[in-house]
Structure prediction request, 407 residues.
Amino acid sequence: MTTMRRSVGLTDSPKLESEIASIRSTIESYLAFHVDPAIVSERDLLLQQITTVQKQIAHAQDIRVIDAQVIGCRKSIHEGRSFAEFHVEIVTKDHGTLSVWHTSDKFSALAQILGPRARSCLPDVPKMPVRRLTDAALGDRMNILNEFLQAITKSNDLEWGIRVNDDISVYKRRCSPKPIHITKENKQKQLDVLMALTAERDVHAEYKTLKAQLATYKNGDANKIVSQEAAQLKTQLRDLQATLISTQKIYLISARIVEFRKGLRSGDEYKLEIDTNNRGTLSVWHRYSTFYNLAGLMHTKYGQVAKSLPTLPKQTLFSQMSNDVMTERAKKLNAFLAAAVANDALQWGLRIDENTCAYKYRKRVASRTNSSVDDHYSSVSTSTAASSDDEKSPTSSHRTLFPTKGS
Prediction:
């Protein structure tokens, strides 16, 4: 992380906040009087839908902490009470650098939640006296908080989390994050959403933007301008919905062979159709050896549990692949796939392409739940999501079986 930029400052003037609220109210009144209500309603609904999808994308992320540091502080007044907030900069493994403002009491609460054994090995985080809001006192408090953050970040034994906002939390976990198959483009779109939701609010820029927006409405055709905004929002919503789908695991509902063909150099190939929870029906061509190897993995992994699966004919090198032989194999494969999907104790997956896998998870009788720490901190439990590639996650207790690469 870069060198800490310690700073103590005042929050923006309440007067500016009041002016922003006044401009917003003026814009709403102007649009209500000059623009077709249906157009305004459509635009407002799209804005709500965009916010909802952005939150869903953010909530789906498994964000891991690498480092955390307090880089600044600000004094605030709320309902006549003075208090201080500390600016925490969080470096994550795969999601860039996020930031959040928290009071000192939140750090004290986290220390309490970690338990007495952990606290005995960590720097103390006493509650901050309300009256001690001098620059020197706040600078000392930042040092205390940073010692605490460095200790819990570098510990390999502690699991903890910090809530960045209502929809984004970052975690320090002992287990490694499970690999996710996603394109670079969609990954960047996810990061863009996180940055937008966690960006530091600039009230001065917000004030200027709102003033310019009001002037635009007054100087132009407000109906046309709001219609254009709605059109742009529709495009944005479609893009976000596509990005959301890319964050969701694809659950395999059913699978069947619908076609077969002779491969040029790789024997017989079979077209697989997979019904999924969120992508409709996907199709992919796989060699017979892929399914045969998957069956072998199931028997190796699950033993007696997989005994009920129909047996697939052995692979035969240099055999003549007639239509009758491939028809019989297709029937056997469909019986095998139907049984593998129906067996609640089996967990496996099939790769559709480089970035897409469909999963069939085993059903669990009971699952552990997370315990939470007030509004801002939560403990961490083991995810039920399986590894996307068996050989990539040797420590996972519930790995998903995949046929070996190149099979």
Remarks:
- The CA atoms of residues 181 and 356 lie 6 Å apart.
- Residues 250-368+380-392 form a domain with the PX Domain fold (CATH 3.30.1520.10).
- The mean pLDDT is 82.
